[in-house]
Amino acid sequence: MSELFTFDALVASRREWIDSVLIPWCRRASRADLRRAEQDWADIAGRVAPERSLWLWAWSRFPCLYVEGLGGLEESFPVRVTLASGETLEGYPENRGSERGELSLLRLDGAPARLSIDDLVSVERMPPD
Question: Which domains does the chain have, with CATH numbers?
């Protein structure tokens, strides 16, 4: 049997597709498309939970929010979020409150904020005081 038709080749091609197609798509897709993909995620990605793959990969477009293997958003450091409107907000990301493409941010001024992934232009870790 040809090496192209082995189980190892199948696994490798699946991993390649995830790395070269699926993860980059998640990093660029709109929240609406991400939510559509979530409905059929088992058919698209297999038996991996969307909150452990789809949404983390989507948030990985902002590297300071995503830590490989963490299983959620990085909450340890304050961030500066720049919105498409030009407004900037500063605060701590809240992993538990951030769901389905909405970032929950506990602002440094104490006010909570819920921000759509579509409205975020950049997210940067704030320098230490």
Answer: 3-125 (2.30.30.100)
Instruction: Give the predicted TM-score (pTM) of the model.
Output: 0.85
User: In terms of C-beta density within 10 A (0-12 exposed, 13-18 middle, 19 or more buried), how is residue 110 classed?
Assistant: exposed
Q: How many CB atoms lie within 10 A of CB 53?
A: 18
pLDDT tens digit string along 91-128? 999 999 999 999 999 999 999 999 999 999 999 999 87
Residue 21 corresponds to which tokens in the numbers above? 């197609």
Q: What are phi and psi of 50, to 5 degrees?
A: -60, -35
- Is residue 64 a contact partner of residue 126, using CB atoms and an 8 Å limit? no
